[in-house]
Amino acid sequence: MWFQHCVFYQIYPLNFCDAPERNTGVQEHRLDRIVNYIEQYLTSYGIGGIYFNPVFSSDSHGYDTRDYRRIDERLGTNDEFRTLVDTAHRHGIRVVLDGVFNHVGRGFFAFQDVVQNGASSRYKDWFCVDFNRNSTYDDGFWYEGWEGHYELVKLNLYNPEVQNYLLDSIGVWLDEFHIDGIRLDVAYLLPDWFMAMIRDYVSSRHAEFFLLGETLSDNQGHLFDEGKLDSITDYPLYKSIWSGFNSHNMFEVAHTLKRNMFEMYRGRTLWSFLDNHDVDRIASKLSDPDLLAAAFGLQLALPGIPCIYYGSEWGMKGMKRPGQSDRELRPAVSHPQNNELSESVAEMIRIRNHTTALQSGSFREIILTNQQYVFLRESEDSRVLVAVNIADHPWEFSFELPEGDWHVAGSSGMEMFDGMLRMEPRSVAWWIF
Q1: In this predicted structure, what is the pLDDT of residue 433?
Q2: What distances in angstroms separate CA 213 from CA 2, 85, 98, 147, 246, one per listed residue?
Q3: How many whole angstroms separate alpha carbon 74 and alpha carbon 87?
Q4: Around Cβ 396, how many Cβ atoms within 10 Å?
Q5: Can you point out the beta strands (E) in 234-292?
Q6: Which portions of the chain are predicted below pLDDT 70?
Q7: In which element (H, E) is residue 358 found?
């Protein structure tokens, strides 16, 4: 499938486009910023897919949906978003949207009807309500919110009307915008049968439609089997990379990787990332910023579907601060900031795009120490030896490179020296042959 062979790029449209935090309903036109970014930057960067955080009308941050069938007024119109998707497709870039189906915002039309009409509302069974209690908003009834956040109203997914409404909304996304996939928000809370129902629906319309599930923990194989998803977010690997780099413990990375590949998710493809809209930027998470290139080089060489969060490829910083807005993690961007790091990442993406071994090849561990990790990716037409040295000193190791044409990609300073492969400190190298 196409999504197993490309590098994704994540954009949080509301913040990327510098939209105001609250939706007042005033129509604005900000999507040109993303269109220009695609045409002037992503097309030359080798990106094969874009994952957009919520784009539909919402109360505030996008995950509090008001209308699943209208682009958020702070961003633009449906026609303008269709132009954006068409632009991406014209350049060979697929588009994946956030599907927020567990909950809605208080401004959602059906919930507002319950607020206005109480127990007589025809939509009361769309939610988990109790008319014998009161909400924190003094609605005159209680309702279930997402993990205690009552601005996010839990949908009753067992109600056939809700199911049909959501499937019909996905149909609008397919018909009007021609999207290529959906990332299911909080998939770990969605019933498996509900995700399978979405799979059956989208597959009847689009044979190669991509379904990604957000999950935070281990042992989520049921999301592939009963839920019929194509991939899930690999939070354990994400944690192991920054933690292993900071503690100089590459055994943590290797253990997590091998547990994924050979135990919990054998034969499955996971969604890999160094950061995203919910966690600290990798440039802020690493105690040694000189290891950024090595982190990207490792991510892009490992099995999985790699996704890069906008701005992190040039070293953007940002930290999640409890009790404060997450805008530091999701800043506005008017133009890319090309630098040595972003150019190195772009080179590795381009190589990965043309190297089957890196996209779908087998994996074999060669050397593992506290500060070094060497492994081999192999396919029928290519072989890549990947080496990471997170130490603050040079490192040499032996590996018999085959006769013939081979070259090195990644950060500078790798060479053959008296029969040994030599790596500079804090570096990554791909020996391609």
Answers
A1: 84
A2: 17, 22, 10, 18, 28
A3: 20
A4: 12
A5: 271-273
A6: 401-407, 409-419
A7: helix 356-360
**Pair of tokens at residue 233:** 């977010």
Total residues found in the chain within this entry: 433
How far is the CA of 250 from the CAs of 210, 257, 355, 375, 421, in angstroms? 32, 11, 25, 12, 19
Separation CA 314–CA 293 (nearest Å): 10
List % helix, strand, coil for the chain (3-state, nearest 5).
35, 25, 40
Residue 384 CA to residue 375 CA, distance in Å, equals: 8
Query: CA-CA distance, 3 to 8, in Å (whole number)?
Result: 9
Structure tokens at 279: 């966690």
Q: Where are the alpha helices (DSSP H) in 10-77?
A: 13-16, 32-37, 43-45
Residues 4/360, Cβ–Cβ less than 8 Å: yes
Interval 297-329: pLDDT, tens: 999 999 999 999 999 999 999 998 887 778 899
Element (H, E) at 415: strand 415-417
CB-count exposure of residue 382 (10 Å: 0-12, 13-18, 19+): middle
What is the Cα gyration radius of the chain? 23
Give the C-alpha distances (Å, rounded to integers) separating 165 from 95, 115, 126, 157, 392.
22, 20, 10, 10, 56
Amino acid at 197: M
Distance CA 406, CA 36 (A): 37
Per-residue pLDDT tens for 393-407? 999 998 876 666 666
Q: Element (H or E) spanning 266, and its range?
A: none
Residue 326 DSSP symbol: G
Instruction: State the amino acid at position 138 in one-letter form.
Output: D
315-76-150 Cα angle (round to 5)? 75
- Kindly report whether the global pTM for this prediction surpasses the value 0.85: yes
Q: How far is CA 153 from the centre of its chain?
A: 24
**Locus of tokens 């961007």:** 333
